[in-house]
Amino acid sequence: MNTMPVSTQIDLKERLKFFFGFDKFKGEQEKIITSILDKKDTFVIMPTGGGKSMCYQLPALVQEGTAVVVSPLIALMKNQVDAIRQFCQNDSVAHFLNSSLNKGDVARVKEDVSSGKTKLLYVAPESLTKQEYIDFLRNSKVSFFAIDEAHCISEWGHDFRPEYRRLKEIMSAITDVPVMALTATATPKVQVDIQKTLGMKEANLFKSSFNRSNLYYEVRPKQDVEKQIVQYVKQHEGKSGVIYCLSRKMVEKFAELLVVNGIKALPYHAGLDSKTRAKHQDMFLMEDVDVIVATIAFG
């Protein structure tokens, strides 16, 4: 019987190249992936853009079973699923379960998971609390759980969601597999609360530097705001950006202003229906538009 850790049986760099086309890992990605493959609870604190999603996508692809990724944002789930399907050229390799699916969609997801085709299943925390899905996953082969945006677990986190407090209870009811928690923002107090709530006090901790040399803040006095914004965007032609406004009315106004001035822009706010929001976000990510004008709904 081979008792070697899973990670020592896999050439991770070769798998990275095969699935994603990259020649090398970024930062501590390889150590993080090795940790979860070795069945260790793993806590990842990494700034936005640091490559968190790779930390659970690659280990999900290289081992048996389906990794269950808990994510609070429906639009983000869709984008991640679309991206992983493109890399693998296989729609069954990744799915999501959330309130946007009809019964036929859910049936197809379940069929692909049960047949072993699906390596990554993205689930909204609200969906994971449903007994129907708990029972289904209990009878499926789950490789590990990944809790994205893990700061949502903590009462002190800036995006607190009560469903996240039940995750340990729900995961234990499904199966006993390792857990990976990932966040871009966690104070020491929030970090301790996340580990306590998920029951992962002995987790391997990976914390990357938040020093981002390519980012900076600049404050300018408001004068003729509409003229300032149009000029600024035109001075950065071909580049992408987000303009945040305090109200839906201002979002619509500034989006229209930019379009009138020959700038590819779209609005994004909670007053738009979910299909329109998803379409606008996809167009922005696919670079069909350069600017999104948004409220904080575009988190």
The helix tally amounts to: 12
Count the E strands: 10
Overall shape: it is: globular
- Major sheet summary line: 7 strands, parallel
What proportion strand? Answer: 5-15%
Index terms:
299 residues, alpha/beta, seven-stranded parallel β-sheet, three-stranded parallel β-sheet, globular
List the helices and strands and how they pair.
Blueprint: H1 12-20, H2 29-37, E1 42-45, H3 52-62, E2 66-70, H4 74-88, E3 94-97, H5 103-114, E4 120-123, H6 125-128, H7 131-138, E5 142-147, H8 167-174, E6 179-183, H9 188-198, E7 204-207, H10 225-235, E8 241-244, H11 248-260, E9 265-268, H12 274-285, E10 291-294
Parallel strand pairs: 1-6, 1-7, 2-4, 2-5, 3-4, 5-6, 8-10, 9-10
Written overview of the protein:
This protein has 299 residues and is of the alpha/beta class. It has helices spanning 12-20, 29-37, 52-62, 74-88, 103-114, 125-128, 131-138, 167-174, 188-198, 225-235, 248-260, 274-285; strands at 42-45, 66-70, 94-97, 120-123, 142-147, 179-183, 204-207, 241-244, 265-268, 291-294. The strands form two sheets. It has a seven-stranded parallel beta sheet, with helices on both faces. Strand 3, helix 5 (103-114) and strand 4 (120-123) form a beta-alpha-beta unit. The protein is globular and about 60 Å long. The termini are far apart.
